[in-house]
Structures are given as C-alpha cells and as structure tokens.
C-alpha cells in the first residue's frame, strides 16, 4: 500500500508520527516495527480529519460555550466524507481482505501519551464489515473527538481544543477466545514489580467497558502468582456474522479461569518486554485467538502513577514526601528544589552525614514529579527512628504516622540498628552548639524575655537587603548560597520557644488527666497571641474594614478582577486608600506567598492579586458577630475560661497540682503562638534569595540565554552558574516548564512512597464511619454549611460561612480562614499549620481526610464535627 497523506499502513508508522497518526496509531506502528504481535491495519491520518473539519466550517465553531461539543459533532456528521478520503479508505480496507472484520478506533494527537491517556474518551467500533460500514465508522470516530466527555477531559488536562486532531485506526479484528487488559504496574498501589491482568472470554470490550466482572490476576516479578480471583464473567461480548457485536449471558463464568498458567506467564513476559522497550509502565490491551496466538491490540503509558525517586541505596527504600509534610501539594520549581538541597546540607552535615557538595545536597534528599522526598529508610530500620518518627508525625501529619507504623511490619524493613546512643550523642551535640537548652529554660522561666530574643533576630533579618545594583551576577549567586545556608540555624534559635509551650501542654495534660481532655486542649489553644500568621490575617481584615467605608476602594475591589487591580497597583493607579493600605501591608508581609517555601513562586509584593482577591472576599462579610477580630476576641476569652475551668476541676483533687496546671497552661498561651515565627523568618530569607535570582534572570534574558527572566527559576544553582558562563539552557527550561505544568494537574501525591513504586497508604486506608468521612480532630465544634472545594487559593471565591475543603494549607491560604465556617483538609495533624489557625479562629476543623477534595463537591451541604474528626455527608 502506498504511503500518502490520507491513509498510511500501520507498519510504516513510528513514535514520531504523532502529528499525522495520533497517539494510538503511532504506538501500534512502533510495536509492529519492533516485532511485537500486532494485528495488521492502517490509519486514516489527521490530514483527512482536517479536510472534513474544514469542509464542516469547524474552525469557526471553536469559540467555546456549553454546547461546543454538541455543535462540533453535528457539523462533522452533516459533512460528507470527501471523495479522495473515501477512495483512499476503500483501497486500504480492500487490501486487508474483502469483507474482513475490522476494529475502527480513534487515535487523537492528544491520546495515549505519557501525560494523558484519553482512555475511553472517543468512540470505538468493533467487528465492522464492508466498505460502507467502515466509512461510516470512520465518520463517527471523527465526530467522537467532540463528545462532551472528551471536551471536558481536554479542558481538565489543559489541552487546547484548536490544536487537537483525530486520526482513525482501522485494524483487522482478532477472533478472540479470551481477551482483556494488562498493567505492568499495579495501577492502585503503584507497585512496579506487579503485573495485573483482567481477563474474560470473548472480545476485550467486555473488560474495557466494565460490562463484566473479569478474572483478576496479580503476578509478582516474572511469574509468581500472588492473587488469582475468579470473576463471575456473566457476560461475553461476541462478534456477529456480517458485523457488529452481541452480549451473551453466561451461567458458568465463575467455574474456571479464563487463562491457563502458561498463558498468564506468556502475558507477563510480553508485558515486561513492552515496558522495557518504552522504559515506562504500560496499560496494554490483548487478545488470544482460537489458535492460541497472543496479540497486542493497544499499549499506552499508565499516566496515573507517581514517578519514583532515583534509588538512594540497596534494597527496599522508604521515601517520605517532604513537600506534603510542609503543606504543599503542587510541584516545586527546579530552583526551589535546588535551594532545599543547599538548606538541608547544613543539618545533614551537623548530624554527621558527609556532604561532598552543598549544591548537590545530602544523599537522602531526592526528587520525583517536581516534589521533594526524603529517604527515611535508615530511620525506619532503627529502633530510635521507629520511636521518634511516628510521634513527630502524630503532631505534624497524622495520616503519615499511621502509614509509617504499618511499614514496621514489613520484613524487608526490619530493624538493623538497635543502639540509641550514636543518635543521642549527635542530637545532644547539635542542641548544645545552638544553645537550645538555655533557650528552653529561658522560655519556661521568662517567656517575655525569650520572645524578645526572637524579635531581635527578626529585626536583624528585616535589615537584610539585596546586593547593590552594580554587584556582579556571580557575587549574587554566592550571596544566595550563603543566605540559604543560614536558614537552618534559624530553627534552633527560634523553635525552642514554641516547643517549650507544647511541652507545657503535655505536662498540663499529664497533671490534669481527664480534667483536660482533647476538647478542652483545643479551647486552650484558641486565639493564641504572638502568632505572626494570625496577626497578618487580622491586619488584612482591618484593612478591609477601613476600605469598606471608602466608596472608591470598595467599588474597585467589588467590580474589578484582582489581576487587573494588581497591575494598577504596580502602576500606582489604585484609589488612594487602597493603594496606600496595600503598600503598607506589603511592606510588612510582601515576602509571603502561596506555596511560599518554593522560592520560585512569586511573592505577594511581586503579584498582590491574591491579597486583593481576599480583600474582595472580606467585603462580602456583613455580620459583625462573624467579624474575624470579634471571633478572635471571643476565642481568647473562651481559652482563658477553659484554663480557669480546668484549674478549678484539678483543685478539687489537689491544690498543688492545680497550681502547676495553671502555670503550665499560662506558658502554653504565652509561647505556642510563636510556632509560626521561624517560618516567617525563613520565608523572608527565601524572598531575598528570589530577588537576587530575578536580577540574574534579567541578565541572562538580556544575553539571549533565557527567553524570560522568570525562566531562571527553572534552572538549578549549578545551571545558573553555567548560564552565566555562556551555556544556553532554553531547551531545558522549555522541557521543565512542560513537566511542571503537567504536574500542576496531578491531584494525588503520595505521603509515603516505596522504591518499588508502592504507595503504602493504598494498603491501609482508614475506614469511614457510616455516612461520614473520617479524619483527625483538629478544632472542636460542629458546623453545617455548603462546602467550597479549593485547590488553589489564588482567585478563590469563598462565601462567608462556607466550609473550606482543601488539599493542604500554608500561611498563604490562611486569609481565607477568616470568613470560612469550617475546614476540611486532606493533609495535616492536630498541630499542623491549618489545624492551629483553625483553632485560633474558632472554626471547626478536621484534617487528614483522605481524598476529601474529590469525595466532597462544591455546594454540597456537609457537617464538620471537629471534636470527633468526622465529616458527615448528606445521605
């Protein structure tokens, strides 16, 4: 068959033919050329689709509205197949054989790709017989590019409708005796050493469409069957003579397996060969014909698996997602990750880890999917690590603690180090070096003096500025590296203040017993003073209160998009009250941002649109009783009352004990609010580093080595240095931006990931109470209100009193808390950032609710029970 622009034989295609043949056909052609058993066929190219689309006037239809798909489908189906296209398809089909049954399937240019599978989004037609039937099926395949589900999928994946084209695969049908799907990695647990097979008699459509309960087989490695569950296989899809298919009921489906052990082994071997060729886990459709021959009918990447970090040692490794532990679900820019390598080199060296190059970071710091992971395998395999790690995460991220404890039963992770003294000696050395015991003592004896000491550190940091304008770019990079090495030492100089407060809470609980339960503890922690994040949020609320009475400012906030207001701010063109108020707020807090631990993220001073959007949200709150400052004041009174009630209860048993409890709880109120201070200091230094990188980026862009100054954040420190020496990294930046944008759309990020790809959490998910989602209690109280699912706070519209449902939070999110009626969070523990702020604002909160943002819908009426840790959904 001659190759032309309209029809191409599959064996002439390869992986580079995506624009002409679409993802499915390109993959099939690549498999045929590599020698895999693929049924013969041809592809009707995207050029044929383009001709039909042009004749249908489709280009003018892509103006986008709710009926976009419906209008496009109707236009395509009303347009006859051009004569040249029909003739080419006819000749190609007859070359396969007269009246030969074929499968007609879509092959879009955005289909079967590593970043988007588009599985089932366009139509497939099986057992099509005859030229006229084939032409009709091709025509309907073109139209299926515009099914509502395909249009929605493209929108969610960020794929422009205007650039997608559809090719159509026409392939000889396999007379399948048994067929199904095969995954070369477990799509649920992520385990890369597992092959998962679903099989059923007849055509594979029964399995793919979900019409049948198939046999389910899981194979470890090259052939050890670890699970073989027989399905009822109550339905079989068979081809009809003359074309089409029928569903036939079966009564004996569960009696025996669809596959023999030999066939299972053959399937596993074939799957591993395909995976090895593509160097990525594959989702494969297969069929076995009446002669026992095994055929591949499709192979595409499994797009839902999270990438695995590069191995950091022998045997099974345990990687903890440090990004999530910091409340960040989105990917981190390459320069942000590079900064973390330098930052973590300092504590690693302090604990005796050899650091060859601070820019490369410690060996335990690894990345995958644009996220930071820590190899905690040595901790999991040591007695002291098993004692400390889960307890730390009980406070920070409770669900991770559950996952870690479950790993302790894994034989491959058995304890190897039982002595505690090497660890104790290193910790003691670090604590003494940074004078932590002295600061702890000062905090307990003289809380005000300890806070003043921390404030002095803050004043020194606020005096730090960028280098002079004439500083050499190499000086700027050296300065940035020095600044980054100063971030870790802030922790032992600041954190002991609030840690001593938490220690006092533990002491008070021990002394008070049942007189200070979890609910009372939550009350004590409400409206804590000296919290920089709370103070920032209340300052923003105070600004909104002042602007409410200014007609020009209020009108601008209510009627103008935040992005436009941000541009006007930088031009000095906002109404004076808003311009001056925002400038004063940013002078104090402009170093903050959403996802602020990533120095690649714009600071509020760079782009204040988020702050302006929050101000607009605040103007919608009219009830003075719900005003955040009033709620905060009531929370402080409630906390003091909780302290008094607890002390009175304890006094009935012991006056001495009551005195000790009162002192301890007072220290809690005086010290725990400082938990946000060290984070504020760290973010201030990151903002300084970001500003220096921006100057370097502007220089590299001026030299033509970067396309945009902001591209510098998609390099690492070493690459920035090489760029200053003349290296052109524009291609690298383009590739990383594409990966970053793809990872931004990833909804699920594992808390813990094993080196074989397994996500341990999938093996031990918490059971939900009847009619409710279960999480960790974070802030007491019960509220029923509409939910508002927010994945990104920038531009989020939150009505006063709505329940905020989020993946996780950092201080950049907290202005939204001021008007929220409750909080539900997928991540976090009782002392994570979101939990603390929720308590301070007195809103009920439950954290650690698995998949909350997908299981709860915006507008759904839900009840948050913060004391019980339950989120009740309507029945």
Architecture overview:
This protein is α+β, with helices and mostly antiparallel strands and 875 residues long. It contains 31 helices and 25 strands. The protein has an eight-stranded mixed β-sheet. The protein has a six-stranded antiparallel β-sheet with strand order 9-8-7-6-12-13. Helix 3 (68-78) packs antiparallel against helix 5, helix 15 (436-445) packs across helix 18 and helix 17 packs antiparallel against helix 27 (677-702). The radius of gyration is 31 Å and the shape is globular.
Number of helices: 31
Rg from alpha-carbon coordinates = 31 Å
- SSE class: alpha+beta
Average of pLDDT: 89
Taken from the alpha-carbon principal axes, the silhouette is globular
Proportion in β-strands: 5-15%
Contiguous runs where pLDDT drops below 50 for at least 5 residues: 111-120
Give the spatial strand order of the biggest sheet: 18-25-24-20-21-22-23-19
Task: Count every beta strand, where a strand is a DSSP E run of 2 or more residues.
Answer: 25
Helix content: 40-55%
Give a short account of the largest sheet. Answer: 8 strands, mixed
Distance between the termini: 60 Å
């Amino acid at each position: 068959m001659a190759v032309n622009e309209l029809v191409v034989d599959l064996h002439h295609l390869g992986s580079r033919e995506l624009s002409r043949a679409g993802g499915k056909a390109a993959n099939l052609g690549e498999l045929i050329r590599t020698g895999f058993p693929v049924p013969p066929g041809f592809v009707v190219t995207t050029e044929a689709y383009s001709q039909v689309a042009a004749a249908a006037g489709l280009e003018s239809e892509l103006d986008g509205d709710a009926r976009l798909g419906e209008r496009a489908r109707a236009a395509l189906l009303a347009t006859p197949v051009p004569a040249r296209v029909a003739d080419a398809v006819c000749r190609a089909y007859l070359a396969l054989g007269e009246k030969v049954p074929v499968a007609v399937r879509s092959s879009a240019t955005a289909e079967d790709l590593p970043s988007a599978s588009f599985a089932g989004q366009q139509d497939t037609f099986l057992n099509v017989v005859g030229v006229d039937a084939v032409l009709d099926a091709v025509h309907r395949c073109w139209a299926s590019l515009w099914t509502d589900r395909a249009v929605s999928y493209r929108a969610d994946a960020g794929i422009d409708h205007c650039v997608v084209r559809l090719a159509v695969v026409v392939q000889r049908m396999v007379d399948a005796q048994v067929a199904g799907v095969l995954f070369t990695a477990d799509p649920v647990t992520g385990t890369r050493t597992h092959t998962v097979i679903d099989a059923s008699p007849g055509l594979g459509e029964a399995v793919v469409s979900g019409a049948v309960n198939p046999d389910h087989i899981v194979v470890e490695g090259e052939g050890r069957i670890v699970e073989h569950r027989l399905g009822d296989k109550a339905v079989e899809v068979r081809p009809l003579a003359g074309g089409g298919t029928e569903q036939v009921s079966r009564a004996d489906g569960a009696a025996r397996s669809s596959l023999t052990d030999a066939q299972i082994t053959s399937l596993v071997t074939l799957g591993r060969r395909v995976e090895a060729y593509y160097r990525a886990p594959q989702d494969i459709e297969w069929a076995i014909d009446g002669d026992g021959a095994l055929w591949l009918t499709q192979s595409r990447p499994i797009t839902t698996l999270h990438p695995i970090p590069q191995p950091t040692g022998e045997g099974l490794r345990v990687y903890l997602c440090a990004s999530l532990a910091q409340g960040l679900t989105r990917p981190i820019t390459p320069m942000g990750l590079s900064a973390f390598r330098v930052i973590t080199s300092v504590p690693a060296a302090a604990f005796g880890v050899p650091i060859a190059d601070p820019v490369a970071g410690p060996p335990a710091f690894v990345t995958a999917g644009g996220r930071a992971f820590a190899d905690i395998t040595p901790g999991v395999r040591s007695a002291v690590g098993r004692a400390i790690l889960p307890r730390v995460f009980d406070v920070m991220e409770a669900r991770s603690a559950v996952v870690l404890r479950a790993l302790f039963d894994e034989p491959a992770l058995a304890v190897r180090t039982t002595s505690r003294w090497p660890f104790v000696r290193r910790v003691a050395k670090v604590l003494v070096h940074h004078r932590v015991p002295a600061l702890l003592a000062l905090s307990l004896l003289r809380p005000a003096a300890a806070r003043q000491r921390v404030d002095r550190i803050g004043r020194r940091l606020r005096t730090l500025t960028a280098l002079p304008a004439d500083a050499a770019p190499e000086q700027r990079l050296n300065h940035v590296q020095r600044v980054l090495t100063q971030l870790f030492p802030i922790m032992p100089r600041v954190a002991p203040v609030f840690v001593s407060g938490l220690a006092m809470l533990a002491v008070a609980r021990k002394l008070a017993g049942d007189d200070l339960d979890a609910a009372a503890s939550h009350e004590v922690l409400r409206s804590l003073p000296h919290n920089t994040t709370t103070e920032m949020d209340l300052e923003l609320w105070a600004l909104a209160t002042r602007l409410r009475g200014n007609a020009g400012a209020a009108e601008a906030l209510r009627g103008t998009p935040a992005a436009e207001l941000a541009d006007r701010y930088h031009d000095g063109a906002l109404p004076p009250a808003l311009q001056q108020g925002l400038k004063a707020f940013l002078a104090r807090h402009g170093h903050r941002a959403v996802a602020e631990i990533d120095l690649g993220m714009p600071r509020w001073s760079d782009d204040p649109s988020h702050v302006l959007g929050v101000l607009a949200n605040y103007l919608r709150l009219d009830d003075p009783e719900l005003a955040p400052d009033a709620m905060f004041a009531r929370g402080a009174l409630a906390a003091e009352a909780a302290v008094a009630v607890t002390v009175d209860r304890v006094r009935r048993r012991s006056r001495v004990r009551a005195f000790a409890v009162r002192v301890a709880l007072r220290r809690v109120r005086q010290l725990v609010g400082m938990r946000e201070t060290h984070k504020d200091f760290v973010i201030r230094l990151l903002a300084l580093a970001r500003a220096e990188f921006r100057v370097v980026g502007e220089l590299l862009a001026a030299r033509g080595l970067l396309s945009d100054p902001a591209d510098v954040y998609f390099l690492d420190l070493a690459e920035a240095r090489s760029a200053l020496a003349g290296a052109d990294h524009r291609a690298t930046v383009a590739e990383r931006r594409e990966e970053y944008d793809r990872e931004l759309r990833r909804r699920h990020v594992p808390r813990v990931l094993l080196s074989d790809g397994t996500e341990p959490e999938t093996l031990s998910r918490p059971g939900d109470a009847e009619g409710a989602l279960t999480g960790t209690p974070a802030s007491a109280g019960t509220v029923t209100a509409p939910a508002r699912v927010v994945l990104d706070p920038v531009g989020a519209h939150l009505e006063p009193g709505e329940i905020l449902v989020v993946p996780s939070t950092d201080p950049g999110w907290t202005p939204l808390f001021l008007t929220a009626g409750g909080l539900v969070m997928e991540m976090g523990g009782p002392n994570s950032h979101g939990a603390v702020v929720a308590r301070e604002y007195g809103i009920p909160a439950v954290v650690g609710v698995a998949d909350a943002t997908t299981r709860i819908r915006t507008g759904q009426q839900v009840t948050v029970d913060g004391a019980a840790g339950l989120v009740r959904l309507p029945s």
